[in-house]
Structure formats: C-alpha cells, structure tokens
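User: I need a structural model of RND family efflux transporter MFP subunit from Moryella indoligenes for a docking pre-check later this week. Nothing fancy, just the predicted structure tokens so I can convert them on my end. Input:
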Amino acid sequence: MEQNEEQIIDAEIQKLMQGGEHTAEKIGKKRKFRGKSLLLAVAVIAVLFILSLVMRMLSGKGGGGLAVSTAELTRGEVQEKLKVSGPVSGTNSADVMSDIHAEVRDILVREGDHVEKGQVLAYLNSRSAEQALELAEHQLALAKANQAEAAKNTGADYAKAQQALQSAETEHARKLALFQTGAVSAAELEAAEAALQNARATMQTFTVKKGKVQINDSYSIQIQIAEKELEKAQDRLAETTVLSPIAGTVTRVNTKPGQFVDRLEEHKPLFTIENLDELELEIRISEYSIGKVSVGQKAMISASIMGDRQAEGEVLSISPTGEMKGNGSTERVIPTKIRVDSRESGLISGITARAEILLDEAKDVFVVPLSALVQTPEGGSALAFVEGGTVFLSPVRTGVESDIAVEVSPLDAADPHFAEGRHFILTPGEEIAEGVAVRESLLKMTASDAAAGAK
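Assistant: Understood. Predicted structure tokens for RND family efflux transporter MFP subunit:
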C-alpha cells in the first residue's frame, strides 16, 4: 500500500510538471497572470516533492509497524461493585391473621391508610364468641359451686366421723372395763373393738391440713379447666375486634364484609401493615461473593419507578445461614438486607429494585482498562508501553478491579517505562511483545474514561 501511495504521489508530480509547461504556454498569451501562475505551480510541486520524501523516509523507518491505539497513563479512582436485585419492603411489617370462624362485619381502613399500633382495623361478628363466653363463665361458676358444695358436705361428713370415733372410743373403754369384771362377754368386747377400728378407718379417709379438712383435688382441676376455657373465650371475643400490631401503612386488605376470616383464599392475611417510612431491599448474594460483603457497606439503589434517580443505601444485615438458590442449581445464596437511607427515594414496597454494593475502592491511583493488560508467561500481568514506535512490557501489580477497569502499579518501582503520562496500548493483541515495532494512534483518555471503559 505504501508503494502505491509513493507511485500516486510521483504521478501527481509528473502531471503537475506537465501542467506547468502547458500553463506557461497559456500564460504567454495572458502575460499579466504569468508571474503568479508560475509561482503557484512551483510551490505545489515543491510541497508534493517534500511529501514524497517524507513518505519514503517513513517507509524506511518503522512505517511497516503494527497500528495500535494508545492512551496516556493517568491517575484516577476505581470502584469494585456487586450488582444485585430484589424486592422492596418496609423494615417492619406484620400480617394480621385470624383463625376464628366469624364473618367480617365492618372494615375501618383502606389500602394506603396510616395506622397506629393498637388501632382498630375491622370488627367481626361477635355473637358466637359472646355466647361461648357466657357458656364458659357458667361452667366456671358451676365448677366453683360444686367445689363449695363438696367442701360443705365433706366438712359435715368429717364432723360425723369425729363424733362416731369419740362414741366408739367411749364404748370400747366401757366394754373393756366391764369385761375385766366379767360383766360382758368376750364377744361383746370384740364387737366394740371392731366398731372402734371402723371409726378410725373412716377418719383415715379424710385429709386434714392445718386443722381444716380437704376435699378431692378433682374439684380444683375442674375449676382450672373452666378458667382456661374462659380465657380462650375471652380471647376469641377480643379477636372479633381486629387491631393493628404495629404502626405503619396498610398495604393490603384481603377481606370484605360478610366473608369468613378463616376461609380466605390461599390463607392470605386479613391485612398487611408495613412501616414504609423506612424501606429495605431483600436480596440474595451468591456464596462466591458473600465474603466481600459486610454490614455497613454503602450501596446505590435504582429502579424503573425512579427513572434516572438513585437512592443511597447501606447493608443492614447478613443472614448467618445460606439456602439453596433453586431452579436446579447447587449454588447456595445468603439472604441479605439493604436499608434505603433516603425517605424521598420514590421507591414503593413490593417492587423490584437494583443495588450496587460498593465492595472496595481506590483513589488517586493509576487506572487502565482491563483490556490493556497483557498476560505474561509467568501468569502475571503487564502493560505494553510505546516509546519511539517500539513496545516495552512493564510487569504490573493489579489492585481494585471494576467490571471494565483496574488499578495498576509497577512491580519494579524503578521501572523506567512505567510513569505518569507514558503511552500504553489500549487493546494489545497476541502479536504485541517486547520490542515489536508499532504505529500508534493516541486517544485522549483520562483515568475516568479508563474506568468507564475504552471505546
């Protein structure tokens, strides 16, 4: 191609030389323009002649080198980020459930309403619950009455047993005295002894504590059972008034008047309450990346609903355990939450948002595109610098790395080629090696451009 360019230039010179002769003949007819035309022709011939010499000199000195694009080595900053996505939700949320068999009577809130903790959300039909409460109260009263009656009867029986024992003891003493005088037979004495034993046995059937006769434990057990049933009935009645367990915004109302609350489709909650003043992003991070993530790291959050805006965030929590990623993958992921710092972010609960977690960054360092790195035979990296049309490879140490750029520093601090402002090849191919001749085309590129990627 270079020979063709020289031939074209030579041909143009010949044409102009011939054209100069023809011009001179014509100028002879128009004398007043003759001097200017000759000077112009000579000037053009001289320029082309010099251009021809320059092209011949270039073709003899590196003109056949490889064409490469280069940029100046400059300082800047580079950030390593992890891109993830997940659903947005309130930092505190509650599903209001109910398993009682009752119809919804009145709903007092709508989706979007702000509620306080303990505020009434709905009333359920309470007739059955009220009847159950009345029955439970009656059962408890009956159990207590039975206990009182049993205590009364047991007390009376105990008093009778005491009297019978005293009578048996008196009769036995009298019979014993008479037997000793021969006034009664042995059979009569034995009968008195048997009566005394029976009276004593009857007294043994009673339990006395601190001088007070005790009744059977079954009466106390019946009262305890009745009290528990009463508590359940009271709770059931209380549940007919549906309250908000937290302060927040009503984000879902899944019921309507006349619907039984224990028969909602797919076991949905009656209401969902969320604290939308503070939002969070629920994400799952791969087990291969979680080691670089820590609580407190900054993140930039975006979503379609936000347009070109972004919101700042911070890693709030990292689960201590992982879980299966799903979809047949053996990879495990770790649930992680990112708090959205800005209340005016434009985000809403329930949508999917994207987050870029800042894992690491370096400032005021040399930054080059990843495409500029040359792999060395030892497995390391190098930059291909161009000086005087010749390639010089400088081994480098890489640091913080983004998707398209990387921090670099010389392995040898005394490397004569690695210096700010030196030209390096942006996309060196396999043919680039130490000492290769090249023809460079310098692109104006800053470190910020390098971090954004070379085009």
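Before docking, keep this in mind: The longest helix spans residues 127-181.
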